[in-house]
Structure formats: structure tokens, C-alpha cells
Amino acid sequence: MEVEYIIEKLGEYLGGIDVDKVKKTLKNKSTGVEKLIGIPISGDEDLEGLECLRIKAFIDAYEEEEKRLITLYRELKTSGVAPSDMTSLKNKIRRIRKQLHAYKEMEKRCQTRQASQGVDK
Predict the structure, then answer these.
(1) For residues 11-46, b (16+ Cβ closer than 10 Å) or e, as one string?
(2) How many domains are contained in the chain?
(3) 93 in the same domain as 40
(4) 101: helix, strand or coil
(5) 96 burial via Cβ count (<10 Å: 0-12, 13-18, 19+)
(6) Rounded to whole angstroms, how far apart are CA atoms 95 and 59?
(7) Do 12 and 26 share a structural domain?
(8) H helix or E strand, kind and range, residue 58
(9) Domain housing 27
(10) Domain identity same for 38 and 59
(11) What mean pLDDT comes out for the span 9-26?
């Protein structure tokens, strides 16, 4: 899921990587993943389900980090710290939000896949 997202968003910048070949390899489920990362995976695992859980864990972690940084920003602001002194904190919050947005997009794809697989089964 993450690899597919990266391929779609950054495919044209990956230079020398055959994007279609990578997508085709990924469609072979665990054997495709084994070829890409070189780690053997047992066949009965629900890889997509595990990956969706991992994405959810990342979302939770980034949301907590965002809350913590926003709280820190507000505390600094009320204590009189100049906004120009908090540029690195603002940049960090912005990076966290970008990561959070990317993982939420992946989560939407997860939910869409799970819904379509639920209908097929």
C-alpha cells in the first residue's frame, strides 16, 4: 500500500525504476513483496490487513505528536516568545501535518480495498 502510494506520487522522479513492473510485482501478493524487500513472508498472513493496522498506528502517533507540538506552540506564544523565534517549531508542525495527510490518504485506500473485498467475499 505505501509502496504503491509512493510509486503513484513519485513515480516520475524515481529515475530508472520501471513503475509498471513494480506494480505488477506487488499484485502477486506476498511473492511480490518478497521480491521487492528480499524477506520471505509466510503465506497465510493477511498482509493488507497488517499494513492497514500499521498505517493506523502511524496516524495515531502523528496525531499525538501534532497535538503535543501545537500545545507547545500555544504555551510559547502565551509566554511571550516572538513568532519569528518559533519558525522551526512551525516547520515541524507543518511536516507532521504533511505526513499525517499522506497516511490518511493511504488509510482511505485501505478502507476502500477492505470494503470492496468485503463485497466480493
Answers:
(1) eeeeeeeeeeebeebbeeeeebbeeeeeeeeeeeee
(2) 2
(3) no
(4) helix
(5) buried
(6) 13
(7) yes
(8) helix 47-78
(9) 1-45
(10) no
(11) 67
